């Protein structure tokens, strides 16, 4: 399993949000990895195998998710910055999404 994982739940439907493009950026804002949420709304392999302490960012292409369903929405993308302190620790960063809002937390 990757040290950074995520999953997206569309709270407007109560279902996982499949097909959302997710990009991971590192401390220098360089793209480290990218993936697409699976049928369960998860991306389990966002590499890398080791992390340098610093600020990382997950960018979710949420607008495409809602546009594909013909749903009016406000946020074309969601960017979540978070701090990595321990290089070997696992970081799970979930996204709870609706057309006009979102929330997140540090998962396990």
UniProtKB/TrEMBL annotation:
<dbReference type="InterPro" id="IPR000895">
    <property type="entry name" value="Transthyretin/HIU_hydrolase"/>
</dbReference>
<feature type="binding site">
    <location>
        <position position="105"/>
    </location>
    <ligand>
        <name>substrate</name>
    </ligand>
</feature>
<feature type="binding site">
    <location>
        <position position="7"/>
    </location>
    <ligand>
        <name>substrate</name>
    </ligand>
</feature>
<feature type="domain" description="Transthyretin/hydroxyisourate hydrolase">
    <location>
        <begin position="4"/>
        <end position="107"/>
    </location>
</feature>
<protein>
    <recommendedName>
        <fullName>5-hydroxyisourate hydrolase</fullName>
        <ecNumber>3.5.2.17</ecNumber>
    </recommendedName>
</protein>
<comment type="similarity">
    <text>Belongs to the transthyretin family. 5-hydroxyisourate hydrolase subfamily.</text>
</comment>
<dbReference type="InterPro" id="IPR023419">
    <property type="entry name" value="Transthyretin_CS"/>
</dbReference>
<dbReference type="Pfam" id="PF00576">
    <property type="entry name" value="Transthyretin"/>
</dbReference>
<keyword id="KW-0378">Hydrolase</keyword>
<dbReference type="GO" id="GO:0033971">
    <property type="term" value="F:hydroxyisourate hydrolase activity"/>
</dbReference>
<comment type="function">
    <text>Catalyzes the hydrolysis of 5-hydroxyisourate (HIU) to 2-oxo-4-hydroxy-4-carboxy-5-ureidoimidazoline (OHCU).</text>
</comment>
<dbReference type="InterPro" id="IPR036817">
    <property type="entry name" value="Transthyretin/HIU_hydrolase_sf"/>
</dbReference>
<comment type="subunit">
    <text>Homotetramer.</text>
</comment>
<feature type="binding site">
    <location>
        <position position="42"/>
    </location>
    <ligand>
        <name>substrate</name>
    </ligand>
</feature>
<dbReference type="InterPro" id="IPR023418">
    <property type="entry name" value="Thyroxine_BS"/>
</dbReference>
<keyword id="KW-0659">Purine metabolism</keyword>
<dbReference type="GO" id="GO:0006144">
    <property type="term" value="P:purine nucleobase metabolic process"/>
</dbReference>
<dbReference type="InterPro" id="IPR014306">
    <property type="entry name" value="Hydroxyisourate_hydrolase"/>
</dbReference>
<dbReference type="InterPro" id="IPR023416">
    <property type="entry name" value="Transthyretin/HIU_hydrolase_d"/>
</dbReference>
<feature type="region of interest" description="Disordered">
    <location>
        <begin position="28"/>
        <end position="48"/>
    </location>
</feature>
């Amino acid at each position: 399993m990757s040290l950074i994982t995520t999953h997206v739940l569309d709270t407007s439907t109560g279902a996982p949000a499949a097909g959302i493009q997710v990009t991971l950026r590192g401390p220098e804002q360089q793209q480290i990895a990218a993936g697409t949420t699976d049928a369960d709304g998860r991306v389990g392999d966002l590499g890398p195998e080791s992390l340098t302490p610093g600020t990382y960012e997950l960018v979710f292409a949420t607008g495409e998710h809602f546009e594909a369903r013909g749903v009016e929405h406000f946020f074309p993308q969601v960017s979540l910055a978070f701090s990595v302190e321990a290089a070997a620790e696992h970081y799970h960063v979930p996204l709870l999404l609706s057309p006009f809002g979102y929330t997140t937390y540090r998962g396990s």
